[in-house]
Amino acid sequence: MNRHTAREKAFQVLFQLDSNDMEIKQAMESFLPEREQEDIFLRTLIEGVASNKDEIDTLIKDNLERWSFNRIATVERTILRIATYELKYIEDIPENVSINEAVELGNKYGDEKSGKFINGVLSKIMK
What we know:
This protein is mainly α. The chain has eight helices and no strands. α1 (3-19) packs across α2 (24-31).
């Protein structure tokens, strides 16, 4: 699977983890076919975001302007977590790729302002 698809699948699993009381393994088994569960990049994103969630959330909170973290919709919060994880923990992905992919996910799954909001927060995180 390509990285774009892996990000989208990771978003779906992490969204479910944030919305429901599930374990990572249970969420992956529920939402991914068995062959997709073995994808290294996909597993890295899901497990990395889940295991570093507190640090990632703090970084996002520290870079919000006129927003509280609790006001961010689950869609945007999940996408921000994935992109922040990539930016801070995966060295071989160019920053602009992570940001562009996050904006695309926001435009696809969020509302008309999601992509712009995600871009603004991630740009601040990168400063």
